[in-house]
Amino acid sequence: MSIHRILVADDEESIRWVLAKSLGKLGYQVELATSGDQALTLLQEKPFDLAVLDIKMPGLSGLDLLSRIHQERPALPIVVMTAESTMANAVEAMKRGAYDYLTKPFDLEALDAIILRANQATEMEPPSKTEPPPQPLDRTLIGRSRPMQEVYKVLGKVAASDVTVLITGESGTGKELVARAIHGNSARLNKPFLALNCAAIPRELLESELFGFEKGAFTGANERKIGKFEQAHGGSLFLDEIGDMPLELQAKLLRVLQEKEITRTGGVTNISVDVRIIAATNQDLQEQVRAKGFREDLYYRLNVIPISLPALRERAEDIPLLVDFFLRQLQAKQNLAARACSAEALAGLQHYSWPGNVRELENAIQRAALLSPNPQLTLDDFPFLATACGGDQDESLEALIARKLNCSLMQMNVQELDNLYDMVLHQMERPLINIVLDKTRGNQVKAAEILGINRNTLRKKIQTLGIDLKKD
Ligand SMILES: Nc1ncnc2c1ncn2[C@@H]1O[C@H](COP(=O)(O)OP(=O)(O)OP(=O)(O)O)[C@@H](O)[C@H]1O
Predict the structure, then answer these.
(1) Are 301 and 277 in contact (CB under 8 A)?
(2) I need a labelling partner for 212 at 20 to 30 A (CA). Which of 16, 60, 285, 402 fits?
(3) Which stretches make up the Response regulatory domain (predicted)?
(4) Which atom of ligand 1 is nearest to the CA of 178?
């Protein structure tokens, strides 16, 4: 198939103009619609090879339009544009059959790449039967950064099918939340979602937890126990820390995935189970396969669709949104007064490396909001940031300078752009001189040498900047 004719529907004139012009330049024939209804009429009148729709339009909304077009012309690739890059939007668009999803303002190259990809795709999505009604999301994932947008896209695409998903990511990146979102966006929504952390349960008990046992199966088995597989029948089972599952159990899990039936320990009958497995790990499973700690066949069976969650430090731009979300949540749940974060504190939070990811951020915000008597949370409410920006005896001078100046920059509050050059230099000068004087234990001759300035110049700067030699 080859894409020539593109329909662009957007109520914003500037967007229509830009797309018509740039797509036209690339050799496409572009037709414009100013509303969803007009787009529908044009689609009924003329053949198109691709449609680009704005999600928010007066009248028939982009999402409703998307559902209508996808129902009538399932093979037509539809690219959805939105100014609001929430998870709900992206997931909803992909669930309703969008080919791809773009957040405004976007690069025209990004749209061109999508069109080229659609062009190359040899087979299009099979016609969807009846669309499942859109369901409200259980608990939304917060984040609008590019890596999170990719997560939402995959999530939206796989939620409706029963494929096995393997979610990877460091601890606290939201793997369980993603698993819940997959379940919450699937047809299994009203059936159970059960989670089991394979690392938190002793090996001997894990088998019973998963498969259950019959009365008298072993000493102490006084009652029959129904395992998680049976309890989750019709729904989804989230197996967290799957890399910690013992090898014998891995073999049993593989059998359930293949045969779709289980046998309780001590039992003889096979029991059919219809359960979607969503697995997660923060380990390198491929490495474990190589080290023979994880079955290769099970790895491939689980890893049909991989979803890799970014570490929080890789999406620092999402931190203000997350902070705002957690503060509001606290306000609602704990009945706390409204709280906000100062710009310096936010900058500090964005700069921190978050080894515990979103869970650590959530805890830090909770702690700060509960302990602080003030409506505005400042750097002082996050003492670990001071340590992260504080001194370290073993650090090299270069590393110390880079880290401290970086911290000063992050904490700088640019109020206006007048005199920016002087302001930034001034901001850097004091900590730089302080660090070097600190390192040379106040020896000005050595400090001037390291700084590469004349000793008199250093003395004058110490005076004009009011550097306290005793303290520093
Ligand atoms: N994108 C997000 N938006 C909002 N909250 C989030 C997000 N990601 C994680 N959280 C919150 O952070 C906490 C940790 O998330 P979750 O338990 O899903 O992480 P995990 O990757 O499964 O952790 P672990 O590997 O330690 O089990 C939860 O309270 C969750 O609600």
Answers:
(1) no
(2) 285
(3) 5-119
(4) 18
Last residue of a domain, one of 134, 165, 183: 134
Most informative mutation of 145, 148, 173, 284 for ligand 1 (most atoms within 8 A of CB): 173
**What residues flank ligand 1, with Cβ below 6 Å?**
141-143, 169, 171-177, 240, 282, 358-359, 362
On the question of pLDDT at 342 being above 80, the answer is yes
User: From the alpha carbon of 282, which atom of ligand 1 is closest?
Assistant: 25
Q: Are 51 and 76 in contact (CB under 8 A)?
A: yes
Residue whose CA is at the smallest distance from ligand 1 atom 30: 174
C-alpha 384/C-alpha 395 separation (Å) is 18
Q: Residue whose CA is closest, atom 15 of ligand 1?
A: 174
- How far is Cα 434 from Cα 467, in angstroms, rounded to an integer? 7
DSSP element (H, E) containing 459: helix 455-464
- Residue for token digits 């590019």? 146
- Closest to 196 (Cα-Cα) out of 219, 212, 184: 212
| 61: in domain | yes
pTM: 0.65
Could you give the CA distance from residue 422 to residue 168 in angstroms, rounded to a whole number? 46
* Same domain, yes or no: 303 and 317: no
31-58 pLDDT tens trace:
999 998 899 889 888 888 899 999 888 8
d(CA 133, CA 140): 18
Cα of 178 to ligand 1 centre, how many Å?
Answer: 8
Please give the ipTM for the structure prediction.
Answer: 0.98
Contact (Cβ atoms closer than 8 angstroms) between residue 182 and residue 236: yes
Decide if 471 is inside a domain.
no
